[in-house]
Design goal:
The chain is an alpha+beta fold and 394 residues long. The protein has eleven helices and 22 strands. It folds into three domains: 7-151, DNA methylase specificity domains (Adenine-n6-DNA-methyltransferase TaqI, Chain A, domain 2); 153-178 and 346-394; 204-344, Adenine-n6-DNA-methyltransferase TaqI, Chain A, domain 2 (Alpha-Beta Complex). Helix 2 crosses helix 3 and helix 5 (153-195) packs antiparallel against helix 11 (347-389). It starts with 6 loop residues before the first strand and ends in a 5-residue tail after the last helix.
Length: 394
């Protein structure tokens, strides 16, 4: 069966007294009801664990829809094209105005239509693209005229049964891959934590300001000699990884405000939103944003590699977050940064521990890459099965 062998406009498949609409709630009802927003619809499901509630008075005031279960829900704004069938467990819940509601006739399988609209063919008809950019809004009037397949009920159920079974297996495989990804990260975090809670013989407690400094000065990135240097901002560092992405020169970015010079001896630390843990060891000279600290390790006090891992540790991150919270904004000021205290071994031991952490970090990155590829492959498999289902190949 292909999508066009038997088809109809979506509005032709709705109940006679229930057009595609937002609907209203019965007046005067007391209490609170669950509230479904566009962001609560993802991967063919309603994320019911994150739903908010609103009062029935608010629901009545804004003319919110009350669900009875089994309706087709489509996100119209934000992440348009996300589709789900409202489970019976959400009977009585409300939907926001950025969610389209469709009550289909009894002979039309809502899960079948939901699967079609999630498929590459269905997403194309909705005007969205599952693998790339999306339009910002799906117009409710346009939604009514979308053409969807309408094979016999038995064929609808056959396809739904096959896809249910396949997607159940994919969901389990995805859960395992995500668990393995979490475990890989947790193993490295545990190793990192053990290093920076160690108190070996000869270790000395010191302030961060005693072992490193900010020696760079702000320069004008428009000046010749600086304009062709690579620029690093917080957005160019991947959280927790220390790797750079999408680097450009100051000239290419058209920078005009002052930037810090840095070189290969320094560690770059983003002072904005410290919970993101954006730390890097550059292997090139360049310019960094004023929202970053270019930290120079003091010789015979701390090595660059040890400083890098220290700034990624839970103890330092917790300290940085605490300071940024007191400041009333997610930013670590210089004074608070340098007051952080830690126990340090001698430089030789620092080199040994850093080498161990680098090996552990590299292995973690390798495992993360494997599991992320598995997750991407599972997503591709899901789209492939949906395409096969609605092109007569399933």
């Amino acid at each position: 069966m292909t999508a066009d062998e038997m088809s109809a406009r979506l509005e032709e498949l709705t109940e006679a007294d229930s057009p595609i609409t937002y609907g209203v709630v019965k007046p005067g009802e007391p209490g609170e009801v669950l509230f479904i927003r566009g962001g609560d619809i993802a991967d063919g499901s309603v994320l019911d664990k994150q739903l908010r509630t609103i009062t029935c008075k608010t629901s009545q005031q804004y003319k919110r829809t009350r669900l009875r279960g089994g309706e087709l829900l489509i996100c119209l704004v934000g992440q348009p094209g996300q589709v789900a069938v409202a489970p019976l467990s959400l009977k009585g819940a409300n939907i926001a105005r950025q969610v389209g509601l469709i009550r289909l006739r009894r002979e039309i399988n809502a899960e079948f239509i939901s699967y079609f609209l999630q498929s590459p063919e269905g997403q194309a008809r909705l005007g969205t693209h599952t693998g790339g950019s999306v339009q910002q809004v799906i117009n409710l009037g346009d939604l009514r005229t979308i053409i969807v397949p309408t094979p016999p009920a038995s064929e609808q159920q056959r396809i739904v049964t096959l896809l249910d079974e396949a997607f159940d297996g994919i969901a389990k495989a995805r859960a395992n891959a995500e668990k393995n990804l979490q475990n890989a990260r947790a193993l490295f975090e545990s190793h990192l934590q053990s290093v920076f809670t160690e108190r070996g013989h000869g270790w000395v407690e010191k302030r961060l300001g005693d072992v490193c400094a900010i020696t760079s000065k702000l320069v004008d990135p428009r000046i010749e000699g600086f304009s062709d240097l690579t620029h690093v901002g917080a957005g160019n560092i991947e959280p927790r990884k220390g790797t750079f992405v999408e680097l450009k020169t100051a000239r290419e970015e058209g920078l005009i405000s002052g930037k810090f010079l840095f070189d290969e001896s320094m560690v770059l630390y983003s002072k904005i939103r410290p919970y993101l843990m954006k730390v890097a060891r550059p292997n090139f000279n360049g310019l960094c944003s004023a929202d970053m600290y270019p930290l120079t390790p003091r010789p015979n006090e701390i090595t660059r590699d040890y400083l890098f891992h220290l700034l990624l540790s839970k103890s330092f991150t917790d300290y940085a977050i605490m300071g940024s919270a007191r400041a009333g904004m997610p930013k670590v000021n210089r004074e608070h940064l340098f007051e952080f205290r830690t126990w340090l071994p001698d430089v030789e031991r620092q080199n040994e521990l850093s080498a161990q952490l680098d090996m552990s970090h590299e292995e973690t990155q390798r495992l993360e890459s494997i599991y992320k590829k598995k997750l991407a492959a599972l997503d591709e498999l899901k789209q492939s099965l949906l395409h096969q289902a609605f092109s007569g190949q399933l």
